[in-house]
Amino acid sequence: MKEAEKGRLGGEVPVGALLISQSNEVLARDHNRCISRNDPTAHAEILVIRHAAKLLENYRLNGMSMVVTIEPCPMCMGAIINARLDMLVFGAFDPKGGAAGSAYNLSDDGSLNHRLRVVPGIMEKECRELMQDFFRERR
């Protein structure tokens, strides 16, 4: 939530993400930076994956977990799957574009070579309200 708030204060869509190691160490944390970087791929999930992969000098992040405020989009789920994360924990569902059970379910797609455990609904109300408030303010 703190990372999402940082993004909101910077005018970004308030999504925050953490990448956590098997020993419960936070390896990376970030928020959306698409607007500030003029980069449509600068979602919080992508940024933490990039940071951790560089830190560990490995594109495979086996055994790690991601915690994110909003259900990831298809691009981010693709990155999460390709990074071989073990678990995804998220707050609010994104019924219009979520790819971990809402609009799509890439996390359990039998045609892909990796599946991960998904734990939805953690601090769901707070995460949903943060997004709703952000878009209400923008209108």
Account of the protein in words:
- By secondary structure, this protein is of the alpha/beta class.
- Strands 2-1-3-4-5 form a five-stranded mixed β-sheet.
- The chain has helices at 2-9, 34-37, 44-56, 74-82, 124-138; strands at 16-20, 26-31, 65-70, 87-92, 117-119.
- 35% of the residues lie in helices and 19% in strands.
- The model has no long low-confidence stretch (mean pLDDT 95).
- The chain is globular, with a radius of gyration of 14 Å.
Keywords for this structure?
alpha/beta, 5 strands
Percent range for helical residues?
Answer: 25-40%
Average pLDDT number: 95
Largest sheet, strands/sense/barrel: 5 strands, mixed
Ranges with pLDDT <50 over ≥5 residues?
none
* Radius of gyration, whole Å: 14 Å
What oligomeric arrangement do these chains adopt?
single chain
* SS content category: alpha/beta
So what's the overall shape? globular
Strand content: 15-25%
As laid out across the biggest beta sheet, the strand order is: 2-1-3-4-5
What order do the helices and strands follow?
HEEHHEHEEH
End-to-end CA span:
22 Å
What is the number of strand segments?
5
How many helices in DSSP terms? Answer: 5
Question: In terms of topology, how is this protein built?
Answer:
Layout: H1 2-9, E1 16-20, E2 26-31, H2 34-37, H3 44-56, E3 65-70, H4 74-82, E4 87-92, E5 117-119, H5 124-138
Parallel strand pairs: 3-4, 4-5
Antiparallel strand pairs: 1-2, 1-3
Please provide a brief summary of the model:
With 139 residues, the protein is an alpha/beta fold.
